[in-house]
Design goal:
- The protein is mainly α.
- It is built from nine helices and no strands.
- Helix 7 packs antiparallel against helix 9.
- The chain is globular, with a radius of gyration of 21 Å.
- The chain starts with a helix and ends with a helix.
Length: 173
């Protein structure tokens, strides 16, 4: 089974090339056009990504994340969320790498088999880096007004946060 997985990407690339050749597509020219479009998309989303990374770094360095977590701990307790996962819930919509670092801290401090560790694992796997995804996808096509995207995505994240604690309560308590 492992050997089959090792061939998946090369076989896929080979099949795509063969399909293109059979259809008479100028492969190299098409590749160059796609690479140019990809490069221009990367350049267009760069300011949004730099802004997001700066905001995450400032939140962590200033201690604002810890203060906000402690302020929201009564709400978290009401919703059934352990206080230890509040920093993860706050940073996950903004930064995937920051969320991974906080998830690692939760595992180190509480253990992977603890209630907080399990909730954090489910929370991390069932939510999205909302603002990063919006910056990348909307930025790449030039959309400036997100309309209902941010409220809808944050509502989905909040739902996932609450349901992650509920699921752990149901399956492990």
């Amino acid at each position: 089974m492992d050997k089959l997985g090792a061939y998946a990407v090369p076989v896929s690339v080979f099949l795509i090339i063969m399909f293109g050749l059979m259809r008479g597509v100028p492969l190299f020219d098409t590749f160059i056009i796609g690479a140019k479009e990809g490069f221009s998309s990367a350049i267009s989303i760069l300011p949004s990504l730099v802004g997001l990374m700066m905001a995450v770094a400032m939140l962590n360095a200033s201690g604002a994340l810890d203060i906000l977590s402690s302020l929201l701990s009564p709400v978290a307790a009401f919703l059934g969320l352990p206080q230890q996962v509040m920093p993860l819930a706050l940073i996950k919509p903004v930064s995937g790498s920051g969320a991974t670092a906080i998830l690692t801290q939760i595992f180190e401090n509480n253990g992977t088999e603890s209630f907080a560790g399990r909730v954090a694992a489910v929370m991390s796997g069932s939510t999205e880096t909302t603002f990063y995804a919006i910056a990348v996808y909307y930025g790449s096509v030039g959309i400036k007004k997100t309309r209902h995207t941010v409220p809808a995505a944050l509502t989905a994240d909040l739902t996932a946060f609450i349901v992650s604690a509920l699921a752990i309560h149901l399956f492990f308590k």
